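Quick one:
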Amino acid sequence: MKAAYYDRLGAAREVLQISDLPTPMPGPGEVRVRLHWSGVNPSDVKSRAGLRSSIMPFSRVIPHSDGAGVVDAVGDGVSTQRVGERVWTWNAAWGRAEGTAAEFVCLPSIQAVRLPDTVSGEAGACLGIPALTALHAVLMDGGVAGKTVLVAGAAGAVGHYATQMAAQFGAAQVIASVSTPEKAEIARAAGADDVILYRDEPLVERARALTAGRGIDRVIEVDIAANGASNAELLAKNGECVAYGSSGAVNVPFFPLIAKNLQLKFFIVYNLTEADRARATATLLHLLERNTLEHRIAARFSLNETAAAHELVESGRAVGNVVVGGGAQ
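Output:
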């Protein structure tokens, strides 16, 4: 099979290679997916660049955890009825050497989830990290029904989903923070009631004004290092900041937090509990079957262009998800 891989850490064009590798065979409890699309996420490019660890986790890594395709073979213990099923994947490259930047991937059957026929393969390759991250941030700890929610980076891969989901799951008010007027239109179309242009407007003051001085009940945060201090100011009493990303170390403003009984909550989608993942996956399937989500694909690349796809994600210019074609469409 054709695959993209790296055997050392470094810049995308220096270390990513495209080559023919042995086609994997599914082991007990596994399925093999013939991949049509592979999703490229910030965690993928950070791992390849050595920003998470300076040590290669395996001698060779096929990157990317998210993908979509068709089950074409199963291992012992898996029903042959799964053969031919359209699926999306999660955690394909988490703690594993072989991800979805290839024509085939083998992984535990539970990590290949049915993809409704009404959902495109490109969209399916955006579900494992972006959509599930957004959904858990919205659903966790009682959800957002009746709450005022601020989604930071609301036009981004996770934020765009989170804005839609918060609106659909009963938030009393959804406020989006974005960097440009173009992204503001994307956020409004996704369901944001109000938008703050954080580069041009004072974030805290605008958030207070939009909530009649009350503040925000839940912030869904893409960069807690950059925005933590502002969040402590704009959150309402007993409010919460749910952080799934950060550009660096976090300095916690203890007294402002404790004075308002604020809560900081952190999670990474790779490590969801079985119960949380089952809830998020089932809820996501419900949304997909109802066709209530917009999937924003920023760019499509061929497998041979995997390095260019990584560079686009690293640049921060992609407004939405970046996908790589993995095989036959």
